[in-house]
Structures are given as C-alpha cells and as structure tokens.
Amino acid sequence: MLDRLAQLQEEIQHASAVHIDSQWLNYSGVQEYYSEELVISVKAGTPIAEINNTLKKNNQILPFYVEDGQQSIGAAYANGAQDLSDSVLGVQIIDGAGDLLNFGGQVMKNVAGYDVSRMLVGSQGLLAVITQISFKVMPSSYVGDLKPSIKTNESSPLRQSVEERLKAVFDPRGIFK
User: Fold this and answer.
1) Is 99 within 8 Å of 12 (Cβ atoms)?
2) pLDDT in tens, 18-51
3) Nearest-CA neighbor of 147 among 83, 80, 75, 92?
4) What Å distances lie between residue 6 and 89, 94, 121, CA to CA?
5) What whole-number distance in Å separates Cα of residue 51 and Cα of residue 40?
C-alpha cells in the first residue's frame, strides 16, 4: 500500500491545511505481527477491534485501555495517555513537509536520544500524520482489568514551550490543524 503513502505525501506537500481522520487517511490493516516476539505493527486507520481479534487468536492483548473498539488505533494514539505511550515501540509518520519518517522500531530498547514515537502520543494530529505504529503486546493472562488512565489537560509554560518546538520541527508550514 505504498501507493497510498505516496498519495498522502503528495497531498500534504501541496496542502495549505490538513484535518486528519481515519476516513481521509484510508490506510488500515495489520502490517506485521510476531506473536512469539509480542510485537504488532498496524496501519493507523485500523480499528482497535480488528487488532484485538488478531491478538486474541494467540491469547494476547494490547496492554492499554481503549474505550471504543471501533476507534482507529491512530485516533487512540493521537489522543493517547501514558498507558498507551508505554506500549509504543515505533511509529511511521508523514511530517508537514510531506516526508515519510520512521522513529523507533520493533524491539523493546532501540532508542538513542529522544523517543519521538512516544513523544507524539497525544499530539492530536497537530504535528504529523501517523501512518503506522508498532506496539508491544502482552499475554492476556498477564493483564488484569484495564482501566482508563488519568489524563490531565494542564498546560504549563514548559509544556507549551516543548509543544511549540515540536511543531516547528514536524510542521514548520503549520498545515496540521
């Protein structure tokens, strides 16, 4: 489905503004799944219910709470909280210049420097288009009741400064609204 990624890149390169949602993205499915390695890579438009059905065949589960199984994994990532962030291994994005970028990977420890794949969790589509995400998964028997994490909307001067700097790096043209 590289053609769809090329289409998205071209749209972004020529856009003055982009509003991201699963219908616009039109990019879903399980990309890779290594049950023995406890790793799954999915396209951002994939419904969480589809991911859960795939994992269930091997008695595995995403180790974070999601309220709506019909929601796409990209939407959960964009609105995510700490428990989701802890499960992210890697991410593929298209930045505001239309470049396809990969951060992280499919192993537990491969980060030198900033862990961009986790920093973008909760960015609400304001920094980049998330196209693919890799997660660590867990055996179902290891995960108890999943509950919503507490997510604060506090905005400190430090947080605002970090968000402004990330915006300057990933979306210098300001097309993601």
Assistant:
1) no
2) 888 888 888 999 999 999 999 999 999 999 999 9
3) 83
4) 24, 10, 24
5) 9
Contact indicator for 85, 118 with CB cutoff of 8 Å: yes
pTM reported for the whole predicted model:
0.85
Q: Is 50:73 a contact under the CB 8 Å cutoff?
A: no
How far apart CA 177 and CA 12 sit, in angstroms, is 12
Reported as a single tens digit per residue, the pLDDT across 133-167 is 999 999 988 877 766 666 666 678 887 888 889 88
Indicate the fold that domain 2-139+154-170 takes in CATH. 3.30.465
Could you tell me how many residues make up the chain?
A: 177
Domain ranges of the chain: 2-139+154-170
Distance, in Å, from the CA atom of 161 to the CA atom of 100, rounded to the nearest integer, reads 25
Write the DSSP assignment of 63-77 as a string of letters.
SS--S-TTSBHHHHH
Cβ contact 135:46 at 8 Å: no
DSSP state of 38: T
Using pLDDT thresholds of 50, 70 and 90, give the confidence band for residue 73.
Answer: very high
pLDDT at 152: 62
